[in-house]
C-alpha cells in the first residue's frame, strides 16, 4: 500500500491537482501496474483514503456532460508524507516495489537528502552482504543445499543493487536530475494556487 500511496500522492502533486482518471492514466503510462503492482481499484481507494487522512483535498467539479468529478490536490501534510515515503523507500532494503516508487518520486527530495538516504541504503546493503558472506562460509549443517543456493541468488541481487545505488549517489552528486532545491523544481516553481491572474 505504501508504494501505491506514494505514487498516487506524487502524481496528484506533480500534476498540480488531478482527477482519479488522470492519476490512473498517468500510472498506466508509466506501466506502474508491472513494477509497482498497482491495480486500478487501489488507485481510487488510495485517493479516498489520502483525502480522509488529510493528505489530499477534494474539490467537486461538474463533469463534461456527465456526473460530477472530484479534483484532488495535495495538502502540506501530503507533501510531507511524500517526502517521508521516498526517504523510507530509499533506505529500506528487501522491498523492490517501494524502491521503484521512491525512484519514480526521487525529485521530491533535496539533492543532499536523496544522497544521504541512498548512501544509507548502500551502508545497509554492504552490512547485509558481510553478514551473508559469513553465513555462507559457516552455514548451519541443517540448512539444505538448495537454500544455500538461494542465499547466493540474494547475494547476487544485493551486489547488483549496491553497485546501482553507488552509481545513483555519484550521479546525484554530479548534478543529475532537477531536485527539490534546484531552480525549476516543484518547490521553486510558482504554486498555481497562489498565482494571481
Automatic annotation (TrEMBL):
Task: Name any one Pfam family assigned in the record.
Answer: PadR
The record's section on InterPro entries has: Metal_resp_DNA-bind_regulator, Tscrpt_reg_PadR_N, WH-like_DNA-bd_sf, WH_DNA-bd_sf
Q: Which Gene3D superfamilies match?
A: Winged helix-like DNA-binding domain superfamily/Winged helix DNA-binding domain
Which top-rank group of organisms is this from? Bacteria
Q: Which residues form the Transcription regulator PadR N-terminal domain?
A: 9-82
Kindly give the SUPFAM superfamilies that the UniProt entry links to this protein: Winged helix' DNA-binding domain (SSF46785)
Q: What is this protein called?
A: PadR family transcriptional regulator
Organism encoding this protein: Glycomyces terrestris
Which lineage? Answer: Bacteria, Bacillati, Actinomycetota, Actinomycetes, Glycomycetales
